[in-house]
Amino acid sequence: MTSAARAEQVRETRRKVLAAARDLFLRRGCTGTTVEAIAHRAAVSPQTVSNSA
Q: Is pTM, for the whole model, over 0.85?
C-alpha cells in the first residue's frame, strides 16, 4: 500500500469513527455512549476508536 493510500485509509477510518460517535452521542447522550458501541457502529476495534481520538 502506498503512503497516499494509507493516509486515505486513515482519514476514512477517522471519518467513520467520528460519524458513529456523533450519531451515538446525539441519540444516547454522553453517559449512554461507550467506546465499544462507537467501534461496533464504525465497524472497527475499540482500540482503533481510542487511537482515532
A: yes
Give the Cα separation of 16 and 21 in Å (integer).
Answer: 9
- Longest pairwise C-alpha distance within the chain: 39
Parse the chain into domains and list their residue ranges. 3-52
With a cut of 80, say whether residue 53 has pLDDT above it.
no
Q: What is the DSSP letter of 30?
A: S
Q: Write down the CATH number for the domain with range 3-52.
A: 1.10.10
Give yes or no for a contact between 35 and 50, defined as CB atoms under 8 angstroms apart: yes
CA distance 46 to 48: 5
